[in-house]
Amino acid sequence: MTQLTPVRRASGHRPPVLDTALMLAADGVPVLPLQAGKVPFGNCTDCTGNACGGRPNMKTPGPCHCPGVCHAWAAATTDRAVIASPPWLTAWDRAVCVGYHPGGAGLTVVDLDDADAIAWARTALPATLTVETTRGQHWIYRGAMRSVNGVRPGVDVKSLMAYARWLGNGTGDMAPLPDAVRALAVKEPSTARRAPQGLTAPLRGHGGECPHRTPTYLERGITMAVQRITEARSAVHATVYRTFLAVLSTHGRCGCLTDAHVNRLFTAAQAKGESPRHCTDAWANALTTLGL
User: Fold this and answer.
1) Residue 284 in contact with residue 61, Cβ under 8 Å?
2) CA 157 to each of CA 34, 111, 126: distance values in angstroms, whole numbers, following the listed order
3) Could you give the C-alpha distances from 87 to 41, 69, 82, 90, 174, in angstroms and in order?
4) 64: CB partners within 8 A, 6+ apart
5) What is the b/e burial string over 42-68, where b = at least 16 CB atoms within 10 angstroms of the residue's CB?
6) What 8-state DSSP symbol labels residue 146?
7) Alpha carbons 113 and 149: distance in angstroms, whole number
8) For the chain, which end, N or C, has fewer CB atoms within 10 Å of the first or last residue's CB respectively?
9) End-to-end Cα, the chain, rounded Å
10) Tens of pLDDT along 237-288?
């Protein structure tokens, strides 16, 4: 998605937020209704306490097929029939604004909460589409990444497995997601766990140098994974999930994988017809299966 369609006025008696949601969904932006305080609607009775078996703590997508607006960001959808269905209409009648899943639309929102955060962004980040908020600004980039709150004072990153409030189209041109924003999600290693510079002992119980740290080993693994997805002729959903699971089982615990590697896998999956949402769900399910 490279451009967001302007929101038109409400038609008939439908809630204005519903018209906004349908317009965004037509542009490929997964939406969900938000209550006062920018809070998503809680789970229905059948899904309370994760009784449905999906999305524990509303963080990880699961098998739930609830027709209502459950599981926060994971409920976000571009399916206009679902958005305008009776269970959702009840929520839209009570909603005060529209939320959206940035990562599901292939976007990242840098949420700047105050003037100091905005001043920092103007010196540290490339200019992009800017939307005014109640207290600060949203800087929106083209590209998805891991969401992290509190990356620095007054700055949150909202993309995959998160939601943001829709506040309008903003000003400026949307820029590609820069490395400077991706770097915000990289946690600095603890000095207490940092290995000495001269460490030559085997890592993780392997003999010699950990093969995951060898660029050629990792590159070959990612290349084979991309090829496996690309060559899938059927059961693409299952192939993508199994491939993500294989990559994470080999490289998910040693810290080798970068956003660039994950993006290559997602790009290959989307080239086979998978949506960003399906990619996100498959990746999250694989993480949960492996306990990562």
Assistant:
1) yes
2) 19, 6, 15
3) 12, 7, 9, 5, 34
4) 47, 52, 53, 54, 55, 70, 71
5) ebbeebeeeebebbeebebbbebebeb
6) B
7) 11
8) C
9) 30
10) 778 888 888 888 777 776 677 778 888 888 888 888 888 777 887 887 777 7
**pTM score of the predicted model:** 0.61
Phi and psi angles of residue 90, each rounded to the nearest 5 degrees, phi first: -60, -40
| Matching residue, tokens 């290559």 | 264
The rounded distance, in Å, linking the Cα atoms of 69 and 79 is 13
What span, in angstroms and rounded, lies between the C-alpha atoms of 157 and 139?
Answer: 10
* Tens digit of each residue's pLDDT (9 = 90 or more) over 61-82: 445 678 888 888 888 999 999 9
What values do phi and psi take at 150, rounded to 5?
65, 40
HSE toward the beta carbon, residue 268, CA cutoff 13 A: 22
Secondary structure letter of residue 161 according to DSSP: B
Separation between Cα atoms, residue 102 and residue 236, nearest integer Å: 24
Give the span between the Cα atoms of 272 and 10, in whole angstroms. 37
Rounded to whole angstroms, how far apart are CA atoms 162 and 60? 11
Q: What are phi and psi of 160, to 5 degrees?
A: -70, 140
